[in-house]
Amino acid sequence: MLLAATLVLASCKKFEEINVNPVAANDEQAQLEYFINGSIIGAQMNPDVAERSFVLYWKSAGRQMSEAGTITVGNYNDQWTSVYYDQISNWLNAANTAIQLADKQTAAGIAKPHTPNLVQVARIWRAYLMSEMSDNFGPIPVNAFNGTNPQFDDVKTVYYHILAELADASQKLDLAVQNPSGLDKQDPAYGYDYAKWRKYANSLRMRLAMRLSEADPAKAQSEFEAVMATAGATNDFITNMNESFQVQERDGWSDLTGVMSRSWNAQPISATINNLMIGLGGIKSADILDAKFQPYIKPANWLGQSYPDHFATKTNAPGAGYWFDGLPEIMDPRAYVLFSIPGDVENPNFPDQNTNDTITTRPLRDAAGKDIKAINAKYTWNARINGAWGTKTGMNLVYNFTGAMPRINMQFRTSTNKRVFFGPWETYFLIAEAAVRGWNTPMTGQAAYETAIQKSFEYNGTSVGSYLTSDSYNRVGTSVAWNHTTEPTSRVMEFEDGFTGAKGSTTVAYPKNDLYKNGSVKNDHLTKIMTQKFIAQTPWLPLETWNDHRRTGLPFFENPAIEIPIITLPALTDANYMTSNVQFFPQRLRYPSNLKNTNAAGYSQALADLGGKDEILTPLWWAKK
Fold first, then answer.
1. Which long-range contacts (CB under 8 A, 24 or more apart) does 99-103 make?
2. Beta pairing partners, 496
3. Using one digit for the tens of pLDDT, what is the confidence trace for 112-139?
4. 266 contacts 402 by C-beta, under 8 angstroms
5. Other C-beta atoms within 10 Å of 625: how many?
6. Which one-letter DSSP state was computed for residue 51?
7. Of 81, 113, 501, 577, which sits 20 to 30 A from 410 (CA to CA)?
């Protein structure tokens, strides 16, 4: 056991370096499962990595939470990036070492009966890690950890390699192999259940094939249909939670500590997901919430209180310039599972970790800094619009205050959950999208879409009810019902002046998403799929919500507010903030600054393969341009 612990701790080093230690295991003694186990556990991210990569990068870029100052406005932090780059290199190195070690043991004639299966598991897991790394940075080395600085490969080459690896490794898994006692404890995801590893490989291949749907549609279709041909008839992919790739979190400070556990990260609801959920599904808040909330529920045509001098208006976000002084009449019921209602301190899942979490009353000020009105956010529902608020920042002490915003609920923060890397809903959403694209699938697009939604509701412990047949539009003009594809029209909304109370009405148009079909479509089948997929992937898969938006432009992402110019988003101006453009949204992470010093040739090759500058706004090969 001491040798095992030593190997896990040393997995960030090349095997050749480990092997020179006179008290370490040699090629014949070392066991592959320790390296694989170390790689999977490491990728759960210790709090140092998770806080910055999972939360501040992925959840922000993927619009699962509101984060004001970094990647959402095209900025970055080199230290955060460097830590993540180093760590994922370590995880890849450990997986690669397991494969190299197996080759040595096989050549020496000392491989165990289950060794070939462990090799396939390591290849499948390595394929995921390579996709994660490439989806963040772009070009990465396909062949690395061989003792020399590696050559970087373009994203197309990386993806073709990954897809080939998954296809080959999944078929080479021998499901009849009997594992020795105790081996299951070295696999925190599946306990070396090879049937589940094959399901994961097939579902992962579906995901990564779909990633190429815009850049390389023929390859995307052929890879996806190849999975359907071998696995479609038997559902040999992830269809239930007990088949999902998920790893148990643990309290404390380790690689298994919950990725959302840091109390100082408020993780408030984003304006994006808020706009997707309000009005969606036709289920009334009054039928979900306790009696104490009933007086605060507003009618569906209520826009809120108007504060144009205190809330950002230079953005295409629905409801910009208004404060919603209550709870929406219609809300996707998963919203109340995922996020807290401000002031709901009796709720056992309420995220009450800091003093500001329970404070709901905050002032608005005049230009001189004098308080002119107090706003009580208790039992209200608002989402901060990110961006540059200019002078309104100092005049409004509500919009950016923790206690005034719905935040990710406590059940996701206590390190008692399982971190989900791939859930069953995603398999069915991928099949639904493939059907819409006209690819061969084992079920109709509607059946897959509705099954995916049901899987998401089951995971969140909510009842689907009449949700699937609803033609109620959300704030961006999308409904749930598969056969309801009528495009929304402008609607008349009621409001009141926040200071005088004077009533008024205004005609409100649904936002135009120029990234998808030039903004002409808001409620077709693909828009429905991507809307529901976004909600279902929250909160565990923010990298995937970011990937989907970069790939398809869906669902609608509001532009950052631009009350003053944003230096890091130079394309976003006063003249175009009502339109959508890929240059308004982050596209990737910059390579860590030390890469050009440690591997100058590789860095130069990476930039050539990237096809653009090493910047946040340079799109990847498979993304919209």
1. 99/123, 99/126, 100/15, 101/15, 101/27, 101/30, 101/32, 101/35, 102/32
2. 305, 503
3. 999 999 999 999 999 999 999 999 999 9
4. yes
5. 12
6. I
7. 81
Confidence of residue 75 (pLDDT cuts 50, 70, 90): very high
Q: Are 453 and 254 a contacting pair, CB within 8 Å?
A: no
| CA 339 to mean position of chain CA atoms | 16
Q: Please report where in the chains the tokens 């104490």 appear, as a residue.
A: 292
Are the C-beta atoms of residues 315 and 559 closer than 8 Å to each other?
A: yes
CA distance linking residue 415 with residue 411, whole number of Å: 8
Residue 128's SS3 state is: helix
CA terminus-to-terminus distance, the chain: 52
Q: Is the dihedral of CA 315, 318, 323, 327 positive or negative?
A: negative
| Nearest of 499, 502, 500, 471 to residue 487 by alpha carbon | 471
Per DSSP bridges, beta strands 491-497 and 302-306 are parallel
Tell me which residue has tokens 């230096």.
Answer: 567
- Whether residue 424 contacts residue 238, with contact meaning beta carbons closer than 8 Å, is answered with yes
Burial of 600 (0-12, 13-18, 19+ CB in 10 A): exposed
Q: What does pTM read for this prediction? A: 0.94
What is the distance, to the nearest Å, from the Cα of residue 44 to the centroid of all Cα atoms in its chain? 14
From the list 341, 404, 395, 355, the residue with the least C-alpha distance to 371 is 395
Contacts of 290 (CB under 8 A, 6+ apart): none
pLDDT of residue 147: 66
